[in-house]
Amino acid sequence: MTPLTSLRTSEDEIEIINQLLLPHTTEWLPINSIPDAYDAIKSMKIRGAPAIASLASLSIAQNLSRVLKESPPPKYSGAHLDPLLDYLFTSRPTAVNLGAAIKRLRGKLDLLVKNGWEDTRALAQEIIKEARLVADEDVDRNRLMSKHGAEWLLADIAKHEKELENGKTNVLTVCNTGSLATSGYGTALGLITHLFETGNLNNAYYTQTAPYHQGSRLTSFELISLGAPSVMICDTMVGSLFQRFNIHAVVVGADRIAKNGDTANKIGTYNAAVLAARHKIPFIVVAPVSTVDLDIPNGSYIPIEQRAAIEACLVRGALHPISPATTDPAQAVVMMTPSNIDLVSGVYNPSFDVTPAELITAIVTEKGVAVKDGAAEFDLSSIV
Ligand SMILES: CSC[C@H]1O[C@H](OP(=O)(O)O)[C@H](O)[C@@H]1O
Fold first, then answer.
1. CA-closest candidate to residue 253, choices 365, 375, 102, 144
2. Distance 356 CA to ligand 1 centre (A)
3. pLDDT, position 130
4. In ligand 1, which atom is closest to the CA atom of 187?
5. Measuring CA to CA, how many Å separate 352 from each of 145, 229, 269, 364?
6. What's the CA angle centered on 381, arms 377 and 384, to 5 degrees?
7. Residue 182 Cβ < 6 Å to ligand 1
8. What pLDDT, on a 0 to 100 scale, did the predictor assign at position 76?
9. How far is ligand 1, taken at its centre, from the CA of residue 44, in Å?
10. Any catalytic annotation for residue 156?
């Protein structure tokens, strides 16, 4: 079976799975330009922090490759690339991976120009190589962090002599952090996949994750495709699950991790973290190094994207909104930042929330696992 992924390429051709139609329809959409990539990210046809960064980078490579075919190719400098990078950056503000990828490409260009790369064709080819690396590095990185996280969890269970179920673990995850959120294998769902592949998974529980339903539509699709034992719960059922079942860990992804470990992730993650603390269940964040934003000291600096109110009133496939609540875009919070938290809309629809470091047990990247050892905040230096 072809491994599941959010996108595929052939030479300069890029295609993404239209995730708005999953799980009932698998439609591959061609991405033929940077505006196509911007629209796909903004409208969430493709979503997931690493996948967004991969598509943005590949669309830059596609653009450069096509311009190079013109003759004679225009003289390259930041002037051509900068506005394209700035435009892509504005597609979704919370996930830092997109910004990290754009910063990486801009840095590569500056370095080449600084080193006197005058040959336009050669310079552009170097940028194309770097852009393709952003996508290609993802799968191996995900497998590595998943192994780190799964091994840490199993060791922690053994250290605390916790009772397993059928000799295996029960874990809860939020949203979708698998192959559909990355270039393959996934982050938090990658850890769950590693547990399954090594015979250590009793059940993977996951929340539906309204209103986009990344859980009920995408995580279910991935876990069923994998053949992994899984149980879907409504977002409101996390507390009841912890009261009645032996859950060994909550494992989630991240869109941006601040220097102290505060983590922005899909809305509902903070709820699960508070309940996990109440039930003394380890809370594990799994994300690539490119998700860590050392430029911000804590989570209050993370911009929280507000999605259109109508998206919170639609049940996918239904003909009409489920609520008479106003969905007038003029009456909505556009972005939550330290300076703007005025709520004026009849529908509050933040796409993310921030879990404080104090509620997080471990943070896992491809470089390893960080724990707090009794401190209130993380020192992430060993895993970035
Ligand atoms: C490895 S994906 C990280 C992150 O992205 C998802 O958000 P969205 O579906 O809105 O792009 C979710 O927060 C995942 O945890």
1. 365
2. 17
3. 93
4. 1
5. 23, 27, 8, 20
6. 115
7. yes
8. 63
9. 10
10. no
CA distance 36 to 58: 12
**pLDDT single digits (tens) 294-328:** 999 999 999 999 998 888 888 766 777 777 777 78
* Angstrom distance (rounded) from CA 179 to CA 222: 8
Distance CA 313, CA 197 (A): 38
Cβ–ligand 1 distance for 175 under 6 Å, the answer yes
Cα of 269 vs centre of ligand 1, distance in Å, is 11
CA nearest to 21, candidates 217, 310, 178: 217
Check: CB of residue 155 under 8 Å from CB of residue 235: no
Pocket of ligand 1 contains residue 102 by CB under 6 Å = no
Query: Separation of 180 CA from ligand 1 center, angstroms?
Result: 10
- Local confidence band at 334 (pLDDT 50, 70, 90 cut-offs): confident
pLDDT tens digits, one per residue of 229-262 = 999 999 999 999 999 999 999 999 999 999 999 9
- The residue whose CA is least distant from atom 11 of ligand 1 is 48
Atom of ligand 1 nearest to the CA of 352: 13
Model ipTM? Answer: 0.97
Residue nearest to atom 13 of ligand 1 (CA): 266
Ligand 1, atom nearest to 181 Cα: 2
State if residue 220 touches ligand 1 by the CB under 6 angstroms criterion: no
Q: First CA to last CA across the chain, in angstroms? A: 34
The model carries a pTM of 0.94
Q: Which of 255, 262, 293, 353 is catalytic?
A: 255
